[in-house]
Structures are given as structure tokens and as C-alpha cells.
Amino acid sequence: MVQKLVLFLTMLGLVAGVALGLQSKKEKQEELAKRSVQGAVRNASDQLASSAVVQLKNLKTLQIRSYLTKEDGTYHFNGLSRDIDYEVKAEREGMVSPTRTLSVFDDRRQAIINLKLESKK
Hints:
The protein has one helix and ten strands. The protein is α+β, with helices and mostly antiparallel strands. The strands form two sheets. Strands 2, 3, 5, 6, 7 and 10 form a six-stranded antiparallel β-sheet that branches.
């Protein structure tokens, strides 16, 4: 009886270990399917622009995420799908950057897109 119980618990442990291993592998694959974009925003005088609003637009759903640049003018967006194009632009004090695109054909996991503010036209 004790041997059967030990055998049962051992098998149960093996099944749980395999299930955890599969879950971990799935999580790693999902993480590899993600990417990020980061960069710095500069003003017309080429100085880093803190408190600029950077907008990231998902071109599939048209959802927009915003980020306020840090003191050093940097921004970042994580958890982006590799299967979707995104547009990035920045605005601050009546100035705007040209819109830049992060394409599905850009295979970098960590894309860097720096933005420069210009007068609105």
C-alpha cells in the first residue's frame, strides 16, 4: 500500500513538472513574440525634451497609448506585438515631431526611434 502511494505521488510530481515545463515554454514563446520601442525626444534646439507627450498608435485597432518623457527626454513602450504596425509621434508646447512607423518588417526586439520636435505647419 505504501509503495503504491509513493508511486502515485511520484507520478503526480512528474505530471506536474511536465505541465509546469510546458507552461514555462509557452510563456517564453509568448515573450519572444513581443517587442518594445524606445527613444529620446529632442526639441528644435536639439536639447532633450522632458515632459513631451509621446503617442503610440496601434494601426490595427487604432488604440493610442501615451507616455510622458522622463527628465532625460526618453520614453519606452513594452509588450508590443510583432504582427502589428505602430505609429509614434511626440508633442510638446505647440511643437510636434514627424510621425514615424514601427513596421512588422522591422525584426528588432528593441527598436529605437528618436523623435525631433518641429513647429506645427
